[in-house]
User: Fold this.
Amino acid sequence: MDLRADQARARAAAAERREQAGFTAAVRPLAVRVFDVVQPIHDVLDAFARPRPGLAETRDDVILRSGAVEELREVTKELEGLPVPESRRQEAAVLSRSLGGVTAAVTQLGRAARSPADRSGYIKAFGPAVDGLAGAEYAWAGAVSRIDLDASIPVPASRRTAARGRTTPTRGGFIQRSDLACAESLALMLRLPERTLIDDLRLNMPKRTGAMRKTLAVLGRTPLPAASAVSQQRLLVQLEAARAATRSIDRVASAIRAGDVERYRAASQDLTASFASLTELSQAYRAYGATLCADLFDDGEDPEKPSRKT
Assistant:
């Protein structure tokens, strides 16, 4: 009799472990998605340890344009729709509640990114918003640890201390790397001295195209998420068109220096023909959320972009 009872208890315990393991397996990809949209926000905040041109704008782009809040809300719906075994109801409730806290914290960061800066560029709202994110993530990490007994699920944290080795490309990471590369070119162009039109083409333009080519090289090595493979290929085509435009600019400058009118006209025609490609590239980067790159390839302003002092 006791043997049968022990066997029944063993079967029940085994079934419970299978249910628990199944619940953890179902939560894992959702938790990874949380990491993938929130960690890039930490990465750009951590980047302020080494100030450089464009950081404030890049931070705002990552927070506002990487789709973090929308993705967190979608993950919340999917998490709450999972079947939960009786033995995991409390853990599931804690997960849902803590994820709500992360979503609220990222939303608060978005409000801070849209807040006006003072004359020095300082935004007071960022202090409490960043603190709120840290607290929400601590709660999320604790909730995940209650079901992730082997500590293999990545959770967002400053300096990627809980990334568990995950390095998959994300939209936020794409925005950060792209924006900062483009900011370097924009900063150089602002430092160039004002010259007459001819001298600008002859002396400043080669420096602009040199900076542009360095930026284009970085952009060509910056991957979009795997789900954006078609967009990635299209972007590579557009970047190659931008390289062709820089070559046309170089030919214009070279023709001016040589005083070769015919070569100047031919190069100018090639450059004019490239403007549409540059505009297309600008619009692509604006759609991806990297507005500093959109500004680099086109002078148009984004009416939704908050004004920031760099």
Notes: The domain at 171-297 is CATH 1.20.120 (Four Helix Bundle (Hemerythrin (Met), subunit A)). The mean pLDDT is 89.
